[in-house]
Design goal:
heterodimer; A: 180 residues; mainly alpha; Fumarate Reductase Iron-sulfur Protein, Chain B, domain 2; 2 domains; 57% helix; 0% strand; globular; B: 286 residues; alpha/beta; Glutathione S-transferase Yfyf (Class Pi), Chain A, domain 2; Rossmann fold; 4-stranded parallel sheet; 8 strands
Chain lengths: 180, 286
């Protein structure tokens, strides 16, 4: 149980466009039925709201749930109460990061961290480095699994050798630092 | 002549280079000019939004602010960039405090965001701005080639004025105009799993398999798409799907712009068709 966390989530959700609508959920389950990855989630979208109402949102964040959301917006489009559930999923991801409540399966979180690190470094994504970073932090042996794909990309001239260059990168880094 | 500020995005620069080539070729053929956004940066994609909201919004806004130095609509080819930019714009126009904060950061580079430019997608622009021109430009007959138009998710969702979020049809209309025959398949706007291919391959392979089955059952000889991530997942992982589910898919996955370019008589090499993994010659040259 974590009453304080539930309160913070509800408060912060008001800041995102149409975020306050989360209170209007009628638990119809249209979101869960529409979600193409609901079967892989320990807590389905409808249940997440039920858990929030029962002050058990910390359990949701610890479970393999929010980082499975692929951002396809099916739930958002179909919700009869007009809840932008995909945006709420993003918010739950950020809350987990902020309060260091980590899920059991950390792959999604680690990919996001590696992605942000790579983008902060170059200003753009540099795919080979992103995948090296990610595999070093998760399972290094998986790296061997992606070698054939890398080779195919290389042979079709779709593999970058040099990292991208953005002239304004110093300003970008400075700004991102300031926001912190 | 119509001019657009073109925001290619990270994936088009490299692993989805054929998309970049074909977009440039067809806009050239349509008589429009694409001016690449100077010194653009990553939009932040879906991943940054899950880590830090203001950082993510800043990344997208820098691009829109650079574009505001000119007066042209911002043209996206990547569905994720398209949605990410639109979302950032929506956030800022609804939150003056956030707008002020982001603008104070952009000031360092002499940039300012007001939100006056339209954020548009290649598919929508071709349909709305050039549809009438297309029939006269078609040079190669596609002879009723059976095409599954796969939209994916972010180009039509959560909301566009352009097409239906559940059963979009505009790409189908264009494909039919080119002389091909679009097939109706139920997974046309289902998600391909996107980044899940990296983080939980098993979950994503199932999604890809379902899309491929749906298209094949509908009789499609080729699938066309307008999203770099969709193209990558459907094409590069077909072998893996075949191994896992004992299927025999070998469906070429073209970018919509490649098929369109081919119909307009543009050389295949220029459209990057030879850089795709699954050979499309068999279906294109009938």
């Amino acid at each position: 149980m974590n009453l304080e966390l539930s309160r913070k989530i509800l408060e912060e959700s008001k800041k995102i466009p149409a975020g306050e609508k989360i209170n209007e959920c009628i638990q119809c389950g249209t979101c869960s039925a529409s979600c193409p990855v609901a079967t892989a989630m320990e807590n389905t979208p409808r249940k997440i709201i039920a858990m929030l109402r029962a002050d058990r949102i910390d359990e949701v964040l610890q479970s393999n749930t929010v980082w499975f959301c692929a951002s396809c917006y099916s739930c958002t489009v179909r919700c009869p109460a007009g809840i932008k559930f995909t945006d709420f999923m993003y918010q739950l991801k950020r809350i987990g990061v902020k309060y260091r409540i980590r899920p059991k399966n950390k792959n999604g979180l680690k990919l996001a961290q590696c992605f942000c690190d790579t983008v902060r470094k170059y200003g753009r994504d540099f795919e080979p480095e992103l995948l090296i970073r990610y595999n070093l932090r998760t399972n290094i042996f998986n790296f061997f699994k992606i070698i054939p794909l890398g080779l195919k990309l290389f042979l079709t001239k779709r593999m970058p050798v040099f990292p991208p260059k953005v002239k304004g990168i110093k300003n970008i880094r400075k700004s991102l630092e300031k926001i912190k | 002549m119509k001019i657009y500020t073109f925001y290619p995005g990270c994936s088009l620069e490299v692993s989805n280079r054929p998309y970049l080539l074909s977009v440039n070729e067809i806009f050239n053929a349509l008589g429009a000019q694409l001016k690449e956004l100077p010194d653009w940066n990553c939009c932040g994609a879906t991943l940054y939004m899950g880590m830090d909201e203001i950082n993510a919004v800043y990344m997208s806004t820098r691009n829109m602010a650079i574009a505001e130095k000119d007066n042209y609509d911002i043209l996206n080819a990547c569905s994720a960039c398209f949605l990410t930019l639109k979302k950032a714009k929506d956030y800022l126009l609804n939150d003056s405090e956030l707008m002020q904060k982001v603008n104070s950061l952009l000031k360092e580079e002499d940039l300012k965001f007001t939100g006056r430019l339209k954020i548009r997608h290649v598919l929508e622009v071709i349909y709305n701005d050039f549809k009438d021109k297309i029939p006269a430009l078609v040079k190669r007959k596609l002879n009723g080639l059976k095409v599954a138009c796969y939209y994916g998710c972010q180009v039509v969702r959560p909301k566009t004025d352009f097409d239906d979020p559940e059963f979009p049809n505009k790409m189908d209309e264009l494909v039919n105009m080119l002389g091909a025959a679009s097939v109706f398949f139920t997974y046309k706007a289902k998600c391909c799993g996107g980044m899940l291919m990296t983080t939980s391959e098993d979950v994503c392979l199932k999604m890809v398999k379902d899309i491929l089955s749906s298209a094949q059952n509908a009789g499609a000889e080729v699938i066309v798409t307008v999203c770099p991530l969709c193209q990558m997942n459907l094409e590069a992982y077909q072998d893996t799907v075949n191994k896992k589910y004992k299927t025999k898919f070998k469906i070429p996955i073209l970018y919509f712009t490649q098929l369109m370019g081919y119909a307009l008589g543009i050389d295949k090499d220029k459209l990057g068709i030879n850089q795709n993994f699954i050979n499309a010659d068999k279906v294109l040259i009938k």
